[in-house]
Specification:
The protein has 451 residues and is an alpha+beta fold. The chain has 2 domains: 276 residues, FAD/NAD(P)-binding domain (3-Layer(bba) Sandwich), CATH 3.50.50.60; 158 residues, Beta Barrel (Elongation Factor Tu (Ef-tu), domain 3). The chain contains 13 helices and 17 strands. The longest helix has 22 residues. The radius of gyration is 22 Å and the shape is globular. It starts with a strand and ends in a 6-residue tail after the last helix. One of its GO terms (molecular function) is flavin adenine dinucleotide binding. Its EC number is 2.1.1.74. Belongs to the MnmG family. TrmFO subfamily.
Length: 451
């Protein structure tokens, strides 16, 4: 009897899970409610649509945990990473992509796969039988979120995610702004000039902070609380934490020299990163916001170089739902009360496109093993994949569980490797060397036969 794997949600996690399972010979149905049922943040019905940043963050697989995750996903024939590299944009040491062609390519690849079909209907209840992966992400529909909450016996945890604005390049004043990656990072001239920089004097910075603090903000609905994920704080929330917070965060002036005025060091710098291959759109890095639209335009136009800025998209805020995975999921990412259902992606409490896709990759492989009756060894927690899945399925403290990016703090310590900031480079290289060896060994042990 042919068993089908049903996947709810066609974002990063759902798309990757479908790809992994289909390549192992499993028949897969992706249930994606868009574009029939829209969300606040999505613009299209494409699978793998990027709704916030267009960056997969650091691509350094020797010194950075997320770069290591890129590497591990490529070794496992990951669709999301393969497609990201196909649509890569200059971004210094980061992996940024042309978001629309990226999602179109993901959609085309999945729809062309003979083992994958897509159903554009909203799933509103938890299924009682068959094999399912719920990968609905931070924008899980209200009906399904209620069904999950009812099943788990607890209210869904939630925080708020904010979206950064996108500016038309031809509306930026290049007599003020200049192109440079921080510390001139990158192997090519295009990489070394991947970011657009807008400088601020001390007076301009202070005026900008005042404007942020005074700006009209989005109101929360009754019963909602502002539990932000620290890695994606709205810019005005950062400003509320201290007037210098932004200058030591997304607006730090280090590693940059103003090409238009090299003798004067900026007090603060606003960076913009290319958002499409044409170079016509740039997103303001780290400027997620919950300011109202009119306030955004007024405040952001006080930034030198953006006085006449025109916006392709303004920032926004949306609810981000996730479950308390350490208490609800087993080591195979199955819902303990309904083991026919797995969870994957941001709804499990991982944060970021890469982490979401990675958990989709594992969930897809775990589902294949179960459907085909094959043994699947535990993923080594010395790998980026293993460290993440271990964290969400029991490694984290359930009482204080919050969304987490991959980081070396999730990895088991190395014997004989010195700690401390001074030895960090050698330590990180040792982490990544160990992870690569263990990941390749795990992949070699888990070659899944086609169903």
């Amino acid at each position: 009897m042919i068993q089908t794997l049903n996947i709810i949600g066609g974002g990063m996690a759902g798309s990757e899970a479908a790809w992994q399972a289909a390549n192992a010979g499993i028949q897969v149905v992706i249930h994606e409610m868009r574009p029939k049922v829209e969300t606040f943040a999505h613009r299209t019905g494409n699978l793998g649509e990027m709704v916030c940043s267009n960056s997969f963050r650091s691509d350094d697989h020797e010194q950075n945990a997320v770069g290591l995750l890129h590497w591990e996903m490529m070794q496992a024939n990951g669709l999301i990473m393969q497609t990201a590299y196909q649509h890569r944009l200059p971004a210094g040491g980061a992996l940024a992509v042309d978001r629309d062609p990226f999602a179109e390519s993901v959609t085309a690849a999945l729809k062309a796969h003979p083992n994958i079909s897509v159903s554009y209907e909203e799933i509103t209840a938890l299924p009682d039988d068959d094999n399912w992966i719920i990968a609905t992400g931070p924008l899980t529909s209200g009906a399904l979120a209620e069904a999950i909450a009812a099943e788990t016996g607890a209210e869904a945890l939630a925080f708020f995610d904010a979206i950064a604005p996108i500016v038309y390049h031809d509306s930026i004043n290049m007599d003020v702004a200049w192109m440079q990656s921080r510390y001139d990072k990158g192997e090519t001239e295009e990489e070394r000039t991947a970011y657009l920089n807008c400088p601020m004097t001390k007076d301009q910075y202070e005026a900008f902070i005042d404007a942020l603090l005074m700006a009209e903000k989005t109101e929360f609905k009754e019963g909602e609380t502002a539990g932000y994920f620290d890695g994606c704080l709205p810019i005005e929330v950062m400003a509320e934490r201290g007037r210098e917070t932004l200058r030591f965060g997304p607006m730090k002036p280090v590693g940059l020299t103003n090409a238009n005025d090299p003798e004067n060091k900026p007090y603060a710098v606003v960076q913009l990163r290319r958002d499409n291959a044409l170079g016509t759109l740039y997103n303001i890095v780290g400027f997620q916001t919950k300011m109202k639209y009119g306030a955004q335009k007024a405040v952001f136009k006080t930034i030198p170089g953006l006085e006449n800025a025109e916006f392709a998209r303004l920032g926004g805020i949306h609810r981000n739902t996730f479950i308390n995975s350490p208490t609800l999921l087993d080591a195979q990412m199955r819902l303990r009360s309904r083991p026919n259902i797995r969870f994957a992606g941001q709804i499990t409490g991982v944060e970021g496109y890469v982490e979401s896709a990675a958990m989709g990759l594992l969930a897809g492989r775990m589902a294949v093993a179960e459907i085909t009756g094959q043994a699947l060894p535990s993923v080594p927690n010395t790998t980026a994949m293993g460290a993440l899945v271990t964290h969400i399925t029991g490694g984290a403290e359930a009482k204080t569980f919050q969304p987490m990016n991959v980081n070396f703090g999730l990895f088991p310590a190395l014997d004989g490797v010195k700690g401390g900031r001074r030895n960090r480079k050698d330590r990180y290289k040792a982490y990544t060397d160990r992870a690569k060896a263990d990941w390749q060994a795990w992949l070699g042990q888990t070659a899944l036969d086609a169903a």
